Structures
1.
Amino acid sequence: MKSIKFKNKKLFYLDQTKLPGQEVWKSCKTIKSGWKAIKELRVRGAPLIGVFAAYSICVHLDKCSDKKAIFFNQFKKALDYLKSARPTAVNLFWALDRLDKAVSENKDKTVKQIKEIIIKEAKLIHREDISTCEKLADFGAALIKNNENILTHCNTGFLATSGQGTALGVIFKTKQQGKNPTVYIDETRPLLQGARLTAWELSKKKIKSFLITDNSAAFLMQNKMIDSIIVGADRIAASGDTANKIGTYNLAVLADYHNIPFYVAAPQSTFDLSLQKGEDIVIEKRDGVEVKKVLGGDFICPAETKALNFAFDLTPSGLITAIITDKGVIYPPYKKNIKRLIKW
Amino acid sequence: MKSIKFKNKKLFYLDQTKLPGQEVWKSCKTIKSGWKAIKELRVRGAPLIGVFAAYSICVHLDKCSDKKAIFFNQFKKALDYLKSARPTAVNLFWALDRLDKAVSENKDKTVKQIKEIIIKEAKLIHREDISTCEKLADFGAALIKNNENILTHCNTGFLATSGQGTALGVIFKTKQQGKNPTVYIDETRPLLQGARLTAWELSKKKIKSFLITDNSAAFLMQNKMIDSIIVGADRIAASGDTANKIGTYNLAVLADYHNIPFYVAAPQSTFDLSLQKGEDIVIEKRDGVEVKKVLGGDFICPAETKALNFAFDLTPSGLITAIITDKGVIYPPYKKNIKRLIKW
């Protein structure tokens, strides 16, 4: 199960806005089409955005000069351009900064050599993301019991990473381990990543699952239908405060009230230790039309109605039972334990 | 602003499934079409269902026998039939029981006279609902300060009652009083009564409002954008436990966590003192297809995905700051104070 491919310097992606109705693979030939694919959520999911952005630089290299000074300038501009596609998921910045670092460390080589190094580094980021998912899933699955009823939000599987996923990767692993999970899927308005993508992944993996409206989760918890909640993350501050898809904070408050474990699953690259606390994270505000129209259909409200569309929210670390990473499971006190485990 | 009309023994209703795109008035000529209109949510809102069901009996009377024994049998069957349309909103049962009582008290009169009495009682229920809304709005508006930011859920205005509404009626009243409210509207999945109906009513009344996804409410509360929450109710037990549109309990937990007043607004007819506590209330479970398709459009998930569709949830009275009724505002301890104020 893959959502992007890079072969012979050519980049392809599964257009996630067309799912689950159609499985359409598209070619990404320019940095502009890479930027657009991220901006329009055709490629999404914090870890996947990082890998895809790195490859978007790769497809741009042939258009860059072979004169070093000009090349460095073009490369820097390309990094900044891609970073402007989405503000919240840190993995985008992390992956591009890795390319930047690889270039800095090899700045005395020829441009031709440097271009090869960039491609090598992008492929390494990709391979690492796949193995990161594996490690994270192993650590996470150890927290899940047999026949557990797990609630999840948005999409965090093989469509959100280049591996098997973060939160959903943990669930896939419990299935492989014969633990027989049942998954309740928040549809995740406005863009319905839960309904469109997570339900599709769980169907492909033949895992028992039920789609619910986001506002039903509380009722299910009240009726003891949920044993644990696992979500992904777009950026985690040094304090453990976590930015993730809008609706995550709601679930965290509900989990606290109902005394249900609330897990965040994210690779090391999702941590941003330059930020002390959640309030420092930029929350992307998107066009209200995504709320006013469901998947581009007719207006669901009067045309003149104003809609607010915050794409993410902030969950304070105090509401998080544990953060599942590829380096291990992090428990409170987060500030100390994140500092000890996460390094990049 | 009206949502049903009864004139010269003819019943008409605004088809709410067509809003906000089209304002389509339909004629209800038979009890079967009345039942269907309620079942399919063409006429909805707990108080409005009660009034409309009473009138649905009225349009049925000409088809009933003038022989008393046969008439009583037909009348009883008609009541039971309409009661089967929806299980949770008690106002439906309350209004039909009022007709039943009026008939019982006049059983010695001629069938012709009894039929006139039924029509008179239905019109009385209608008039009372209008004045009930007025009284409730007066009591509720006194709780709201100038420039308050109010969150509401589902639809509780002139489309949900035959008057100006319950929760929304309170908001309309604060506008009339010059208090300048700002309303945040939960879109209210799956059937989007907030987006389709509440946004439409607020637009008609020129009240400043913003549509949000249901999963955004927590983020707004965290960011101190909400001063109070007002919702309606479909049934309130003797304990004050309240059944209302799915998502209400979620808001109540969030309000508790963020220390925001959480008000339920409902007329006396919404109380069901025969039930001691919320767990005794029947929660309507509707077809999962309402979740899987938004307003009858294409599937938002794989066709094979199973969806859960609980139409209502239960809010324990401990999470309710006050219940606003046409008899006054009820504060805890609810059991005692409801018993003192509510009588029917």
Note: Residues 4-132 of chain A form a domain with the Four Helix Bundle (Hemerythrin (Met), subunit A) fold (CATH 1.20.120.420).
2.
Amino acid sequence: MLDLPYTFELNPPGFVPSHYDNHIRRTLTSMRGQYLDAAAYEAMLAAGDELLYEVYELARPHESGELLHGISIVHPGKVGDEYYMTKGHFHTVLETAEVYVCLSGQGAMVMETPEGDWAVEWLAPGRVLYVPPRWAHRSVNTGPDDLITLFAYPGHAGHDYGTIEQQGFRKLIVERDGAAVVVDNPRWGKMEGEKG
Amino acid sequence: MLDLPYTFELNPPGFVPSHYDNHIRRTLTSMRGQYLDAAAYEAMLAAGDELLYEVYELARPHESGELLHGISIVHPGKVGDEYYMTKGHFHTVLETAEVYVCLSGQGAMVMETPEGDWAVEWLAPGRVLYVPPRWAHRSVNTGPDDLITLFAYPGHAGHDYGTIEQQGFRKLIVERDGAAVVVDNPRWGKMEGEKG
């Protein structure tokens, strides 16, 4: 079977691809245990299982040499003082990178390595971010509008969500006096332990 | 050594990355033998070795799992009826893809496989192009302004320019009655033979 080149359109303001194969929707329930303020989380959830972020994927084989790509949209909002964010993950094949292009909105990419290094890069339209191999990554929306990014990563990368679900990220992005700041995650390494 | 995440800015109208490692400039001399109208080519060259296109690269290891990325800028113009274009290439590792995001301008990506398939996709701002594994690709600027694209491809892909230098692409993009059209390349498979 011939595998043909293709194009799709990204049009403002929504930037939903004109063609896509998968649409993933993550609501509050999928983030249980991940936000620091558990009381705020439960209060929000009681009011409704809000949509936090969406991913539109183009389907490609999960093979080295292919590039998996699509659009990530993190909606604006906070759980307590902590901004809406993606689950975040390591790649299963740690030695794989990812490139992001910020199309709209304001936010941050929170990153860390298994060796204990951490980094935060701020996102704004027109900014390109390179996440080198070994860095887990989570998008955080610190602005009043959707944070929209285009992503591409190697087809064989895979996703390891479990490590982050269990240990969290070392750093959180929270609002302090109206500004987004980086703070230590006091529960790092024991996220799962406090869930039950 | 810790390999840190980084960002760079792409600002209109030029979209030159705020940070880059390599700046490649291709002038008319580097395209000898590639344009159909050899007389027009020689006349232009006699008047000056004009800059046809530029590439700004971020340096990454040439390894699977990495993503080589940067910006390509093809300037506007024609050699005879044939629009300014890049040399074009196969990846040395054929089973590697490439993703392009058109940031500015109008143009086309001319593509073909070793098996004889060909494809042309038109580029405009906001359009994303996926070049699957096995497809040689060449950017062509069909508009009055710079054609500017962001590209990313697997670190182990490599570039095979020689095959295209020798055989050309099966299709050319030329101006007919003021419009860009796809025509057969009458010299396909014998480009090098006609150089001497």
Note: Chain A touches chain B through 51 residues (CB under 8 Å).
3.
Amino acid sequence: MEPVVWLGDGIEIVDQTRLPWEEVCLRLSTCQEVAAAINEMRVRGAPVIGIAAAYGIALGARSIEAPDKESFLADLSRMAEMLACTRPTAVNLFKAIDRMLSAAGGGGDAATIKASLVAEAEAIHAEERAATRSISRLGAELIRDGSTIITHCNAGPLATGGYGTALGVIIEAKRQDKAIAVLATETRPLLQGARLTMWELMREGIPVTLITDSMAGHFINRGDVDCALVGADRIAANGDVANKIGTYALAVLARENGVPFYVAAPTSTIDLSLASGDGIPIEQRRPDEVTLIRGMSIAPQGAPAANPAFDVTPHRYVSAIVTDRGILREPYVSTIPRVLSRASTTGG
Amino acid sequence: MEPVVWLGDGIEIVDQTRLPWEEVCLRLSTCQEVAAAINEMRVRGAPVIGIAAAYGIALGARSIEAPDKESFLADLSRMAEMLACTRPTAVNLFKAIDRMLSAAGGGGDAATIKASLVAEAEAIHAEERAATRSISRLGAELIRDGSTIITHCNAGPLATGGYGTALGVIIEAKRQDKAIAVLATETRPLLQGARLTMWELMREGIPVTLITDSMAGHFINRGDVDCALVGADRIAANGDVANKIGTYALAVLARENGVPFYVAAPTSTIDLSLASGDGIPIEQRRPDEVTLIRGMSIAPQGAPAANPAFDVTPHRYVSAIVTDRGILREPYVSTIPRVLSRASTTGG
């Protein structure tokens, strides 16, 4: 199931808030609708957020009827700002927006720019799809036959387009006939693990067992887990990784028990402008995502709650980062710039 | 609110599965009803399970109309076995049952034994209440003014009788006018933190913020937490601690960040018969406690799930164990037997 499909005059997305109960597709025709869908996490996952935002700008450009190029670009810039305000942590969003604005500045009349923006969004989409294919193949080398892999949140096709990052690696290992099993953490508060990872892996016929986030340490400590494998929302220049809240705990538990902790993410997730994870903004979402589950209260009336959506895992806990351009290891401060300076080897 | 009240011909319990939405008391008149209430976690928390089981045996004894003492004791033994099958991890259950069976063997006719069983159950209840008072006072010395304390699951008055263990310490620190704040983990799957700890601390006027279990590491790593404080279901002779699933992860995260990790539990929770935590049986509960929340599905139809209810925290992660007879530190293998050999100093 494709998380985002370009229709020529809009995009169709899978409403990820309604899975696994309903498979509902939404048609989004305006930049505003795309921004709302990102903010409400109907479309989610760092790479897919970038793809959706790119199409959002292409759709926004189509709606602009400006008298001159200057005001066209001013209108487009306002739309880009609206998209940039939807979610602060995943860098793919900002990179996609920057790339679209660069494409808009490429010259020609409004009609030419509008066409080039659609082409640029389609290029971003195609590159992200290709990156997941490359990540899946490279990462599968890390998965030994007979492994049990623990994953957190959802870094599958829904989150990334194409094959998925962390789940792409797992699915590829299965296709290589490796006997693997997966422990999927439910990933409170929004249960992307229970809802989406379980759904994707069960459809692939991969043996997967759901656990609460609190159980990860128990199974790792018992020796039931061979590696941990997650996606990423932003990776700093030193290899610090922002990912779904709970990732840091999983990384600490893995290292404490001598279990490798792998991150799988496209190079578009790397933010060289940040020297370390300290500078990554952590999205704070509504407390009622914690106090309500499917609309039902789980706490006393008026209970205060905190809801940071991400945490930062220091690079020293990260055994390897699987990118579309190779598997990176410490010292990330050297290996990350090196891989980014190389030409892409994904080959589409 | 008292979790268990002896009525003379039954007990009244607070149905902890219905808090915080409804404050419902249940009247239990038979040993079978008590066993079912423990199994279904309507009455829960290691010390309170022991108290309820003791009353369950006293109630069971009342119902026995055996022709002679031998068959009376045989009937009573069957009831004890039924109670012992309800939950395997909390040792207080087995200690209370053993103590009641010893009391039954004390001589006299059936009427005398029935009366002495009621007296023994009331003694267990009173001792557990007194123990929590002592734990609260001793433990409060560990809480510095201005502290933020993270706790997991529920070790308050509902779980322990009296003042609570971990929450008793927190409540006592507040009564000593220390400025404290609490982070309460929701404690999936059954949400005792969100439902019960939040309810108890909000009633006490203690500033408390609900977080998901997955957020604990993030807040500890940010430096927002001064200590972790939890209860226990069974403590082995070497200081290994079985407690609600997720406790091990919290302990690892605390130590990784130089934050003290404290356990508060009555000496009745210590099991000297086990040299280490390896021997502690871990209760495996129904998978649908993970896949359903308040009866609503959170995962795809047929999703496999695991549900270990407890984990074991190795003693090396435990900074101190606050018991009713003193604060214990490493080497627990020496300090635990020493405190158990001393006469109780709780003084009621």
Note: Chain B has two domains: 4-133, 141-345.
